[in-house]
């Protein structure tokens, strides 16, 4: 299945919340890989409220890699189930972010190979958190089908993003920057929010969609302030009522449309065969 990477550069609160919202609204099963190395797992401490022991995840995977070559079985052992229906899964992030520097780059490459080849109708959603120059997660970054930069749709954040984008030329291959990189804009109430066209023109990166302000639902994901419905019918009702969930659903549709469009593009080699 195509994988979706969510990231920020100049600071965008809510990347992990958006990952959970996209997992909740997906029509397929999903696996969130919490690959943010700047902090301890926000999902274990926020959504799970510290009720799940931090004994599975990327750090444990790194420790395994020091003793043997990682196999798919090793990776699945570091995954836990989010919901009761078996549709949402999570590989937790670090519980000690100071350990991030000790994770060998081959661990990220192995994660990239694994998620890129994932079958069985599971959509990987990779939460990268903030990207930075000399990012050690390049093997995972370059593996995703679509990499979104999440940014607030306000002038200060757009200008900060514009100034920080230059390092992506060294971090990502040209074809990824040209066709697999996009923006997801987070709307901020009470502040002037710039249009998709204005931001795309200034940044030079296409806008894939917007996330509506919806504090109530966002808090349910980030702080588990309330339980969210899990049956298919109840999920559909929840999506209709929530601006955040409708935004997440629209993002899935936008990314799927890009996939279908790209699949229809005939390469020069393909044209010769016609």
At a glance:
Helix content is 44%, strand content 16%. With 274 residues, the protein is of the alpha/beta class. The chain has an eight-stranded mixed β-sheet, sandwiched between helices.
Could you describe the 3D structure shown?
With 274 residues, the protein is an alpha/beta fold. The protein has one domain (4-264): 3-Layer(aba) Sandwich (Rossmann fold), CATH 3.40.50. The protein is 44% helix and 16% strand. The protein contains 14 helices and 8 strands. It has an 8-stranded mixed β-sheet, with helices on both faces. α1 packs across α11 (215-222). The longest helix has 22 residues, at 243-264. It is globular. The two termini are 27 Å apart. The model has no long low-confidence stretch (mean pLDDT 92).
